[in-house]
Amino acid sequence: MKASHRKSRVRDAVIRRLLLISVIGVVLFVLLMRTNTIVDLFTKYSFESDERFEEIHNNYSLVLKKNLNLPKQNELSISLENRNQMPPRNLDLYPKLAKNHIVIVLYVHNRPQYLQVVVDSLSRVVGISETLLIVSHDGYFKEMNKIVESIKFCQVKQIFAPYSPHVFPNTFPGISPYDCKDKDGSLKMKCEGTPDQYGNHRSPKIVSLKHHWWWMMNTVWDGLEETRGHFGHILFIEEDHFIYPNAYRNLQVLTELKPKKCPHCYAANLAPSDVKSRGEKWESLIAERMGNVGYTFNRTVWRMIHRKAREFCSFDDYNWDITMWATVYPSFGGPVYTLRAPRTSAIHFGKCGLHQGQGENAACIDNGALNFEVEEIDKVQNVKRNWGVHVYEHQAGYQAGFRGWGGWGDIRDREMCLDFAKMYGALDIVEV
């Protein structure tokens, strides 16, 4: 009888110990999952080894999205979101991507003549057939879509921002009849919207710049089947960037040399940060602040950017690039350098505003013509692996205390921006 009682006590003690260990294990797992290092490892190895992770990720994202406060979608918005899930075109012509390819993302607005120029330049890029081109549209525009559908030189996938102001003509994030419109009027009548630091209310066409860039970044890195598992570099260009034939081959060398020649560099660039410069033409690589023409980085850098969602979404400036330079990059704790060649491989050719250059008679490509020529040296890979690196240590930029140029004061824009950061269930966004 005593022996039986003793065995029962031992068994109960073992059960309690196992339960305690299980609870401690769960707590530790949760704590570890909240750290960035473990999150990155979890993400990486889940993509590479767990076949069910894709299904889990999709289901989690769907559940999470229902809890977000995104605008109620209209028919066009839903249609665009469905189109984003379509596979790339030209898979019959280019069934496989090259190993260690650099994905190219071209984000566009509504300037067909500009887009045709950059597409023509991409068609002559050496190595373009080896990779995937993703074209991200700020809404849906028939002429822009037609140009992209004509591309035959590589795999190409189109994505359309389903929450673009251009998709919502009568409600937020487009123009709502109840929106505040001027400084004085908003004080006298009840209206929707909060002004920026200068007292001005939102302009949907202007805020679409920042919304599109942020939505695109989150979608490309975390939302697309084609790129969620991509751990290499991704190149980002715009519709007014002319790309030289040697750009892709040069970029392959730069991204290969970056960890060796410039381990403190976050990115590689096709062009100088000064858009008017064509490069120094030295026999040396250049390390300088990250430019906004042809910039290229990997998932590690994206995770760093993504963790700064609150800073990005709350800074009162409608420009995504100025927001990055003025508040996100400085929060990294040191200078943010990019590596580039001494000769440019891309040129910013647009000289008019974002929403100009849309009609045949309104084209604005450097006063109607491209006034630059591609030299023979720009047609071949011209980055030398034995070059040293010249570092521009003291560069002009936005100083501490810069508050932004405004245009991004409406709380609705800031909240939607944060929702974009959480839209795909990225694991490093916690209580942003």
TrEMBL record:
It is found in: Golgi apparatus membrane. It catalyses: an N(4)-{beta-D-GlcNAc-(1->2)-alpha-D-Man-(1->3)-[alpha-D-Man-(1->6)]-beta-D-Man-(1->4)-beta-D-GlcNAc-(1->4)-beta-D-GlcNAc}-L-asparaginyl-[protein] + UDP-N-acetyl-alpha-D-glucosamine = N(4)-{beta-D-GlcNAc-(1->2)-alpha-D-Man-(1->3)-[beta-D-GlcNAc-(1->2)-alpha-D-Man-(1->6)]-beta-D-Man-(1->4)-beta-D-GlcNAc-(1->4)-beta-D-GlcNAc}-L-asparaginyl-[protein] + UDP + H(+). Pathway: Protein modification; protein glycosylation. It is a single-pass type II membrane protein. Coiled coil: none annotated. Keywords: Disulfide bond, Glycoprotein, Glycosyltransferase, Golgi apparatus, Manganese, Membrane, Metal-binding, Signal-anchor, Transferase, Transmembrane, Transmembrane helix. Mn(2+) binds at residues 240, 348. The chain crosses the membrane at residues 14-33. GO terms for cellular component: Golgi membrane. Its EC number is 2.4.1.143. It comes from the Eukaryota. Its main location: Golgi. SUPFAM superfamilies: Nucleotide-diphospho-sugar transferases. Disulfide bonds join 180-191, 262-265, 313-417. Substrate binds at residue 138. GO terms for molecular function: alpha-1,6-mannosylglycoprotein 2-beta-N-acetylglucosaminyltransferase activity; metal ion binding. Belongs to the glycosyltransferase 16 (GT16) protein family. This is Alpha-1,6-mannosyl-glycoprotein 2-beta-N-acetylglucosaminyltransferase. It comes from Penstemon smallii. The lineage of its organism: Eukaryota, Viridiplantae, Streptophyta, Embryophyta, Tracheophyta.
